[in-house]
Amino acid sequence: MKIKIRFLAILLLGAMTFPACSFAGNADALQILEQAKEVSLLITEEDADKELIQREIAEVQAMAGDFRAAVKTVFTNPKYRAVMLSRVTVAQAKSGNLKEALATVETIEDPGERALGYLGIGEEWYRESDPISAASMLAQAKIEVDNVQGKFEKSELLKKIAKVEAKNGDWASAYMTVNSIPDEQEKAEILMGMVRDQAEKGNLKAAFQLAETISEEKIKSLASSSIAVSQAEKGDLAGAFSTARGISDDYYKATALAAIGTILTKKGSLSEAQDVFQEAKQMARALKENSFDKAVLLSIIAEGLMGLGDKPAAVVTFQESKQSAMAIPEDIFYNKAQALQYLAEAMAVSGYSKEAEDVFQEAKQATLSVREDYYYKALILVAIAQSELANGDHATAIQMLQQSVQVAQSIPREIQRAHFFVEIAVAQARAGDMANAMHTLQKAEQIAMGVTDELDKLALCINIAIAHLHLGYTKDAIEMADDIKKVNQKAELLGNIAESQAGSGRVKEALNLASEQKSPLFKTKILLGAARGVLQTTPGQGAVARQSSTLSSS
Questions:
Q1: Region 119-133: what's the mean pLDDT?
Q2: Are residues 501 and 22 in contact, defined by beta-carbon separation less than 8 angstroms?
Q3: Could you give the residue ranges of the DSSP H alpha helices within 268-308?
Q4: pLDDT digits over 10-26, tens only?
Q5: For the residues of 92-109, what is the DSSP string, one character each?
Q6: What's the pLDDT score for residue 549?
Q7: What is the Cα–Cα distance from 497 to 516, expressed in whole angstroms?
Q8: Which of 398, 473, 391 lies closest to 430 in space, CA to CA?
Q9: What does the buried/exposed string (b/e) look like for 306-342 if buried means 16 or more CB atoms within 10 Å of the residue's CB?
Q10: Can you tell me the distance from the alpha carbon of 491 to that of 482, in angstroms, rounded to the nearest whole number?
């Protein structure tokens, strides 16, 4: 099923990255790290993993550019040392210290972490416009991957290498790297991304050759569609039409033609654009009557016709899209609800706010009528509410979010239900419904109290605390930490709170939180979080962005 809904999905925990930082931010972070290092020497809690804390300090020192201090840290745990050194290597490379990075990577004993180090150096060589040196580093990274034992880790490393190769135009090497990944679907999707990248760069020969290697026909059609659109954007309309009309899948063929029609409209070729939209529309009409694809494609064409200025044709096509969407049988995949959601958004963008509101309501009814998957049902309701917010209808969005709370209460897995409550609460706050936002967040807190798995509980508590900060309730976030009995978990949560505060520019609040602590462990973790937050490039995202890295390594 092709998901095309423009909505905010559930917050995903991502891996820690090394963002570019300002020199002022580096200096401030290093000063905070000095305090963290001094305080860490006073930690006496028996359960505290002092080596893990030292690794975290070293990693952030590397992020801030103090590589010498980071490398001086000594570990008895070889995995901790390997992870830290790979982070240092990448940070050194990004700062332009390639000679030091090469020296550091040679000291890494774990092959997977060594591969990441070589990959980081290779990326920097690409940025320095030295593709020969870059290719040699990536070749070395692949040699290291051969020594990795775990299949999943090996596959993930190969994907990262292939993406760097493709991004920098070495599509032949990228293809060879991808070809060594065992999963065919995953391989096809990566190749599709490579095709799109090459097409956007104007490397059409490479894009076509890569597209031909994709075995999955629908993915190949999607890749060819992206080539056609790139050709049209670059002015090669004859080539674009040839590519689009050669696509085997009618949905992607029509989608490509509709995109070309939009490009022609922007170029002022209105008569030609009209003909192309009509051609795409005939293909859409020929698709299966009750198909999701037909409804969505007609929405796309109607939006294009509206942009062309042909309002009568747009209105008729919107009506056809709605008829097709309403004919979709209600099933556990929510195809009908999603098609209506897409149609409503297209209508709202085209200026038909009142009509869009009616379709939003029908999308909501289609969602509520399906009973099997409460998680997905609640997700779509939140998506519709977000669309209503974007459309300026806060009252309807608030009502929709309340219904999503009711649906979410039936999600069978408690931990999943709790995380969903957190996301709904944040959406309610954005809609201005602060009272219900707090009430929903309290539902998540009640579930958190009964979670027995330590890592699950910690991840949930972090999510709730960060939500409190987003809602403007710092005191409640800190009280979340006070309710946690295990010192390591409390320390981790306090660190995340400080990172979120500092990442959103409230560094003084984070430092005040550290000064209030009597425990050296708590103070250290808060200072570490504050330093990370200072180095964040996207305000307010620091704590969420690194949870999985911290949890998995502890």
A1: 93
A2: no
A3: 270-286, 292-308
A4: 222 222 333 334 434 57
A5: HHHTT-HHHHHHHHTT--
A6: 31
A7: 14
A8: 398
A9: bbbebeebbbebbebbbebbbebeeeebbbbbbbbbb
A10: 10
Question: Which residue did the predictor score with more confidence, 295 or 45?
Answer: 295
E strand or H helix at 245, and its extent?
Answer: helix 237-245
Here the tokens at position 285 are 């009409």
Alpha carbon of 101 to those of 88, 113, 162, 165, 246: distances in Å?
8, 13, 21, 20, 48
Whole-model pTM over 0.70: no
Residue type, 90: V
For 275-388, strand residue ranges (E) read: none
Amino acid code (one letter) for 225: S
The amino acid sitting at 314 is A
Residue 553 clears pLDDT 50, i.e. is over it: no
Amino acid, res. 388: E
Average pLDDT, the chain: 83
CA dihedral sign of residues 201, 202, 204, 205: negative
Q: Which residues lie closer than 8 Å to 474 by C-beta, 6 or more apart?
A: 468, 497, 501, 509
Helix 98-105 to helix 111-127 angle (10° resolution) is 170
CB 345 within 8 A of CB 6: yes
From 347, 350, 353, 357, select the one nearest 320 (Cα to Cα): 347
> Each residue of 192-207: b (16+ CB within 10 Å) or e?
bbbbbbbbebebbebb
Q: Per residue in 449-492, pLDDT tens?
A: 888 888 888 888 888 888 888 888 888 888 888 878 788 888 88
Give the separation between CA 328 and CA 459, rounded to whole angstroms: 39
Q: What is the DSSP string of 105-151?
A: HTT--SHHHHHHHHHHHHHHHHHTT-HHHHHHHHHHHHHHHHT---H
Q: What are the pLDDT digits (tens) for 288-338?
A: 876 888 999 999 999 999 988 899 998 999 999 998 888 888 765 678 888
For residue 3, how many C-alpha atoms fall within 13 Å in the half-sphere facing its CB?
9
HSE toward the beta carbon, residue 96, CA cutoff 13 A: 3
Q: 175, 181 in Cβ contact below 8 A?
A: no
Closest CA to 492 of 544, 535, 436, 551: 551
Q: What is the pLDDT of residue 333?
A: 63
Of residues 475, 457, 470, the one with CA closest to residue 418: 457
The answer to whether residues 139 and 118 touch, using CB atoms and an 8 Å cutoff, is no
Residue 543: pLDDT band (50, 70, 90) is: very low
First CA to last CA distance, the chain: 37
What is the C-alpha separation between 330 and 334, in angstroms, rounded?
7
On whether the CB atoms of residues 388 and 400 are closer than 8 A, the answer is yes
pLDDT in tens, 141-152: 999 999 998 888
DSSP label at 328?
A: S
Please determine, for residue 105, whether its predicted confidence score (pLDDT) is greater than 90: yes
